[in-house]
From TrEMBL:
Name of the protein in question: Type IV pilus assembly protein PilC
GO biological process: protein secretion by the type II secretion system
Segments passing through the bilayer: 188-214, 234-258, 395-415
InterPro entries: GspF/PilC (IPR003004), T2SS_GspF/T4SS_PilC_CS (IPR001992), T2SS_GspF_dom (IPR018076), T2SS_GspF_sf (IPR042094)
Lineage top rank: taxon: Bacteria
Organism field: Rhodanobacter glycinis
Lipid bilayer topology: Multi-pass membrane protein
Record lineage: Bacteria, Pseudomonadati, Pseudomonadota, Gammaproteobacteria, Lysobacterales
Domain Type II secretion system protein GspF: 88-211, 292-414
Length: 422
């Protein structure tokens, strides 16, 4: 009973401390030190007078103290990107490995954050640790930024007393996965931009250029060739129903995006289609295998139980098809099957991956084998993305030239026809 009362008092004290900290207002200050050198910074306090008093106590002469201005579009700042979490993981791992206390490491990293939202998150996590929570418990208040896999790895590191080593492994994992994502996005950005430019060019020609030629042809009374007539009819349709065309395209894209989020069957179907596409299918497949191998290797090395880790691994593959397969593997492992046998039953993993996993299980070096598999398929993804970029550039140029050139030729066909009559 006494222990419960003490726990309740501690929790109340921690809550009061957090409430008191949250009520402080940040102030920007400018002061002169003992040498007359101009110094500036930010200090949280209840009012400006307390900031001035603290500056004088530190031997500085305050010049200006004003409340820190809030961002124009709200105080939350920009969203926290996975890349921000990857950089934070590397920083905290490096500092802890160098012997910097965790609280001090959080202070240093938060002070250097340019993203105000992530800075607030790090400060709140630090306050949770100061209040007696473990790191994984404090991170648990932000499940979007620090997912289940991240928290499980941190918890395993804390339990085994090797948190700095686990954080270093997590940092490497985050950096590798983000590097793959960025490379794939970079490869897809160019063709998507070119297609958008093609669509805009076609729209401008149908709305503004073709009508001018159509009026000229009509006044000349010439019969139009089939390609030109088709182009004129398309221009008339676009002028009267342009909002329908844009609505159909926008609605189609929105339907696919929303359908993938809300319908598991539709998401599974879209992933199946993506896996069967030439070149792109290999990138999706190899990327999923690389993420699976690296994530499972990290969790296994951190000491997370295999069955428990599979749920987090399923969400890290980046593919609904492979995610469902990993959940099926989890059920097989739970009833006593070996990992390599469960992988073979899915029919989705290459034979080399299954064989190396089998060797890793038998030799007791499963994590090392999984890391080797991950490195191999990450290199495969990198090469495939480079190949895709090389293939797409000439194809896009040909498509762009064919569409725009075909429209120009169709517009000039009646002129050539009229010129041939004289």
């Amino acid at each position: 009973m006494a222990t419960a009362t003490a726990t309740a008092k501690n929790a109340h004290a921690v809550g009061a401390q957090r409430a008191q900290v949250s009520q402080l207002t940040p102030y920007d200050w400018v002061a002169l030190d003992k040498r007359g050198k101009r110094m500036k910074g930010t200090m949280p306090a209840k009012n400006a007078s307390l900031v001035k008093a603290e500056l004088r106590r530190q031997g500085m002469n305050p010049q200006t103290v004003r409340e820190k201005s809030k961002p124009l579009f709200g105080s939350t700042g920009s969203t926290v990107k996975p890349g921000d979490v990857a950089i934070f993981s590397r920083q905290i791992a490096t500092m802890m490995a160098s012997g910097v206390p965790m609280i001090q490491a959080f202070d240093i990293i938060a002070d250097g954050q340019k993203n105000p939202r992530f800075k607030n998150i790090l400060n709140d996590v630090k306050q949770g640790i100061e209040g007696g929570q473990s790191l994984h418990e404090s991170l648990g208040r932000y499940p979007v930024q620090f997912d289940e896999l991240y928290r499980n790895l941190v918890r395993a590191g804390e339990s085994a007393g090797v948190l700095d080593t686990v954080l270093d492994t997590v940092a490497t994992y985050k950096e590798r996965t983000e590097a793959i994502k960025k490379k794939i996005k970079k490869a897809l950005f160019y063709p998507m931009m070119v297609l958008a430019v093609v669509f805009i060019v076609i729209l401008i020609m149908l709305l503004y250029v073709v009508p001018v030629f159509a009026q000229t042809f009509q006044s000349a009374g010439a019969s139009l060739p089939a390609p030109t007539q088709f182009l004129v009819d398309a221009s008339h349709f676009m002028q009267s129903c342009w909002y329908i065309v844009i609505g159909v395209i926008g609605g189609g894209i929105a339907a696919v995006v929303i359908g993938k989020k809300r319908s598991p069957k539709f998401a599974h179907f879209m992933d199946r289609v993506a896996l069967k596409m030439p070149v792109m299918g290999d990138i999706v497949r190899n990327s999923a295998v690389a993420r699976f191998s690296r994530t499972l290797g990290v969790t296994f090395r951190a000491g997370v139980p295999l069955v428990e880790a599979m749920d987090a691994v399923a969400g890290a593959t980046g593919s609904v098809v492979y995610g469902d397969a990993v959940k099926q593997m989890r059920d097989d492992i739970a009833v006593g099957h070996q990992l390599q046998l469960a992988m073979r039953q899915t029919g989705l993993f290459p034979n080399m991956v299954v064989q190396m996993t089998s060797i890793g299980e038998e030799s007791g070096a499963l994590d090392n084998m999984l890391f080797k598999v991950a490195e191999f398929y990450e290199e495969e993804v990198s090469n495939a993305v480079d190949t895709l970029s090389t293939l797409l550039e000439p194809i896009i140029m040909v498509v762009l030239g064919t569409i725009v050139g075909g429209m120009v030729i169709a517009l000039y066909l009646p002129i050539f026809k009229l010129a041939g009559t004289f």
